[in-house]
Amino acid sequence: GFEFSQIEPTALVQKQGGPCAVIAPVQAYLLKIIITEMPGMKLSEVSHDKCKNLLIQALCNILKNCRAPRYRIVHLMRRRGLSPDAATKERSVSADPPASASASSGAAASSPADDPAGEAAGAAAVVAAEEGAVGGVREEDADIDLATEATPASVRELAAGTAAAALRDPDPQPELSPDEFHDRLQTLHFEDYDALARYYTENYSQLAHTYGVLLFMYSVFLTKGAEQVANEVSDTSEPLIHSTYGYGAQSLINLMLTGRAVAHVWDNEQDVGGLKLRGISEQSDIGFITLMEQMRYCTVGSFFKNPRFPVWVMGSDTHLTVLFSNEKRLVSPETLSETGRRIFKSYDPEGNNFISSTLLREVLETLDLVSEPAYVSLMQKRLDPENLGIILLNAFMDEFFPIESRSTPDTFELLHYNGIPGSNENNKVRYYCGSAILLEGDLKSICTSNPMVTCLQTKWPNIEINWHDSHMPSLN
Asked: What is the DSSP track for 400-465?
């Protein structure tokens, strides 16, 4: 479940490998809320109750990003089955429950048309495309009753029973077999954000106890819709969770960060061998940078590198961590010269700092600059006087953006989070602070022995950073 560090009140603890694809995005959204709504607050002074509220806000933010007509939350029963009056496994629950019932409970009944239990099983099947992906459940075994449907009148009794059970036993289901786990699940529908937040507040044990992370992941899948998830993933042969190692695929990370389960991190679509491969369609609240880009395994687009808030999930080859800052100018709007540099580099995917001279017209059109054929021909001769067929980035910038300005400050502080205790000093999860400086020029040093700096350079090519207390945080 979701658990906070003993020495860092707002930092979540990841006790084992695998769930970082859920925990890191949740931590990122939690920090985003602190930065925007609690400016100047010392992270070490946030109360335990406030941390719980922040976690609930973060989860609700992620679910809201799914842009679904209703929230579909998976609830784990602490005892097997319900009384006949509390819930039913039949598929004939009314799709239009009485208004008084919905108003009193804050949740709507599942209907056979819009959420049969089979849809929840479908979500599990997407995750468990290979054996072991979710608790060892195979796709052909996904007909287990993943979601017993709840009536509106059952929600209050459900909440009361959950609270009473939590008081009797702080963690009543330490280990369940896959069949037992799925047999105890129910789906609850919430029509609005406030009702959803109220449910999590009244049923916080669903998050904090065993399986809390898995329950939330299921809730995201069902809220988004299994069919929509499968459509966005495109290649459903690739599981969202690795069957052997249990780590999340990029589609799962993107779903948690943006609400869309696309498989790539570039901007919009790219045509690769005639295939339209979808990436990130708009600027994200939370950013994403990865060591894999420096290794040329992927290209992270501007929408992820320049999010709305100064919080980034950082990817290594095995783990996800979070980078954040209180310096809001790190995500201020681009200057004209920064836009020009970004657009030029978008036509230079290999990072050579030059493009073919035949692409100049497209670059100028994208920047809304003059792109008449005669003018383009003149500029090609001017920018490529030796007729080599290439145009250098520096020559392009000197011609069209001679006065370079940048919105990013020269110096700023960065903080880093790694939820695995063993990756922290003295096995205690906490934040690590460093002072960063952006050097002049475009040259950067590649230091393979320092993956942290290498990853940061995919966002700030000329960055240097000195970590306080002489402790270098780990990406793994």
From this structure: H--S---SS-SEEEEEEE---GGGSGGG----EEEEEEEPSSS-----TT-HHHHHHTTTSTTEEE
Backbone angles phi, psi at 411, to 5 degrees: -130, 145
Containing 39, the helix (H) or strand (E) segment is none
d(CA 248, CA 122): 18
Q: Is 468 a catalytic residue?
A: no
Distance CA 43, CA 11 (A): 9
Residue-level pLDDT at 17: 75
The predicted model scores a pTM of: 0.78
**Segments of 273-389 assigned E as strands:** 275-278, 287-290, 311-315, 320-324, 354-356
Residue 326: the pLDDT is 94
Both tokens assigned to 132: 């072991």
Spatial CA neighbour of 20 closest among 8, 43, 2, 7? 2
20 catalytic, yes or no? yes
Token pair recorded at residue 119:
């849809």
CA within 13 Å, CB half, 476? 5
Coil, strand, or helix at residue 277? Answer: strand
Of 226, 239, 279, 238, give the one whose Cα is nearest residue 257: 279
- φ and ψ at residue 18, rounded to 5 degrees: 115, -60
How many CA atoms within 13 Å lie on the side-chain side of 37? 12
Query: What is the model's pLDDT at position 121?
Result: 40
Report how far residue 358's alpha carbon sits from residue 389's, in angstroms, rounded to the nearest whole number. 8
| pLDDT score at 30 | 98
Cβ partners under 8 Å of residue 335, min gap 6? 405, 406, 407
Low-confidence ranges of the chain (pLDDT < 50): 81-152
At 278, phi and psi to the nearest 5? -85, 140
Q: How far apart are CA 236 and CA 127, in angstroms?
A: 9
pLDDT at 385: 93
Output Rg (C-alpha) for the chain, integer angstroms: 25
- The DSSP code sequence of 101-149 is HHHHHS-B---TTT--HHHHHHHHHHHTSSTTSSTT--GGGTTS---EE
The catalytic residue among 75, 182, 189, 319 is 319
Residue 197 C-beta-side C-alpha neighbours within 13 Å: 14
Residue of 20, 51, 66, 455 marked catalytic: 20
Please answer whether residues 447 and 423 qualify as being in contact, where contact means their C-beta atoms are separated by less than 8 angstroms: no
Nearby residues of 84 by Cβ (< 8 Å), 6 or more positions away: none
Nearest alpha-carbon partner for 370 in 332, 391, 331, 399: 399
Which amino acid appears at position 388 of this protein? L
